[in-house]
Write a structure and sequence with these properties.
By secondary structure, the protein is α+β, with helices and mostly antiparallel strands. It is 12% helix and 26% strand. The chain has two helices and nine strands. Bound molecules: zinc ion (ZN). The site of zinc ion has 8 residues, from loops.
């Protein structure tokens, strides 16, 4: 992982203790869950999506759209989410990785080919998210 310090900062052994093996692989080692297998790929319930690593609010169900890419897709993030974008040249591709700005956990990638007005497609691993049916606190 990068050396960057995030506001929410676990040690590596704490992450291992608090996450399942697959969660650790995706969140902390930038892994990718199998397409079409994630809990939230076709999930449409209203509510908010939180970071699995630190419980910060990232997305609203209103920002989610049906995509054929195999992972949950959002056309924007919550203003408070503070998602960080990192240039990713791995696997022979130029992509932009997205990580939680609070704990640095890997979420997925962002593309500029979204079908809605924002033009953005946040392609996120289900396993990086937790859905809750509660309202914003403001
Ligand atoms: Zn987080």
């Amino acid at each position: 992982m990068s050396e960057k310090k995030y506001p929410f900062n676990n040690s590596d052994s704490e992450w291992k203790e608090n996450l399942s093996e697959l969660e650790y692989h995706v969140l902390r080692n930038k892994g990718t869950e199998a397409p079409y297998k994630g809990t939230y790929t076709d999930f449409i319930d209203a509510g908010f999506y939180y970071c699995k690593g630190c419980d910060v609010q990232l997305f609203s169900s209103e920002q989610k759209f049906q995509s054929s890419c195999g992972w949950p897709s959002f056309d924007n993030e919550l203003e408070s989410a503070n998602i960080e974008q990192i240039q990713d040249n791995s696997m022979g591709m130029r992509r932009t990785e997205i990580v939680c700005g609070n704990c640095g956990s890997h979420l997925g990638h962002i593309f500029d080919d979204g079908p809605t007005a924002t033009g953005q497609r946040y392609c996120v691993n289900s396993i990086s998210l937790v859905h809750k049916k509660i309202k914003l606190n403001y």
